[in-house]
UniProtKB/TrEMBL annotation:
Residues 1-18 form the signal peptide. It holds the Pfam family PAN_3. PANTHER family: C-TYPE LECTIN-RELATED. Coiled coil: none annotated. InterPro entries: CTDL_fold, PAN-3_domain. Keywords: Signal. SMART domains: CW. Residues 7-141 form the PAN-3 domain. This is PAN-3 domain-containing protein. SUPFAM superfamilies: C-type lectin-like.
Length: 285
């Protein structure tokens, strides 16, 4: 008789409120952007994902090829949909998924699969919660390029700074309205700020540091100044997710927000800048 479900491997690693990390192991195939491929037997492949804190899933085939999948991809990768197609023991291919549930609960294959892992490219060392959504024959979620910031314990944004110079047609830059439309073409939103420290994540990515070193890099944020008088604007409407109230000194009437030299600045909204910080809501996928 063919089977679709093998076992659950437990790692007693507390996350919060009694949750522990478990590996759900099943027959199936996994498609997405893998972080690495190594030659390992099946049990070692599962253990490798269990031990690597950023790993969310692994797949193994009978030729001992083990593929490891992370939630956050490199800057040069695109966002990927990662999916599991469940099969039976006849296929011989095995998928192991990292999940975080209460110690007394055994996950069911009929449900969404929830997990939580830390990631190096985010703020405050928070764990990022993720959700494999159930499909007709498996599960799916999305991998993020190139960084994640968390605005609370359950609300995470996948963000990526884009340099227009990488597209020859945009080498002269875009104004604020054009930058908003540019992000929309990437299925993202021009990101505003919830707090100043959020700038540190995108500007510390190695690929962005290289752009800054070679060309400088002034990029648009989502947000426009209001309540401006006497050279100061006190309120900035950001990205639809948060409203950032701060003060910026500027003589520009109702300016737009940008990042220059790793700090936020006010710029004329019609000015052509070199890039944009785009994001999508990782929590909702």
């Amino acid at each position: 008789m063919s089977r679709s479900f093998i076992s659950i491997l437990f790692l007693y690693f507390p996350i919060s409120h009694g949750d522990i990390t478990k590996m759900m192991i099943m027959y199936g195939t996994l498609t997405g952007k893998s972080e690495e491929a190594v030659s390992l037997p099946e049990t070692n492949c599962t253990q490798l994902c269990l031990d690597e804190i950023e790993c969310i899933a692994a797949s193994w085939t009978t030729d001992n090829i083990c593929l490891i999948y992370n939630m956050v991809l490199s800057y040069n990768d695109s966002d990927h949909v990662i999916s599991i197609e469940q099969s039976t023991s006849d296929s011989k291919s095995i998928v192991a998924v990292k999940t975080s549930v209460s110690s007394d609960i055994c996950p069911l294959l009929e449900d969404n699969i929830y997990g939580s892992v830390p990631t190096k490219r985010m703020l405050n060392n928070r764990y990022v919660t993720y959700n494999w959504r159930k499909t007709s024959n498996g599960w799916m979620m999305k991998q993020c390029s190139a960084a994640i910031v968390s605005r609370n314990t359950t609300f995470h944004l996948c963000l990526k700074p884009y340099s227009f110079a990488q597209d020859g047609n945009l080498a002269n830059g875009l104004n604020h309205s054009e930058a908003m439309k540019f992000c929309e073409t990437k299925n993202k939103t021009l990101l505003g700020l919830d707090r100043m420290v959020e700038i540190t994540v995108p500007t510390n990515l190695p690929e962005v540091l290289e752009i800054i070193a070679n060309n400088g890099f002034v990029f648009w944020l989502g947000g426009r100044g209001s309540d401006c008088e006497n050279g100061e604007c006190k309120t900035f409407w950001t990205d639809g997710w948060s409203i950032w109230n701060s003060t910026v000194k500027t003589e520009i009437i109702n300016p737009c927000l940008a990042v220059a030299n790793r700090t936020f600045v006010a710029r004329e909204c019609n000015e052509k800048l070199e890039g944009a910080l785009c994001a999508w809501d990782f929590s909702e996928f």
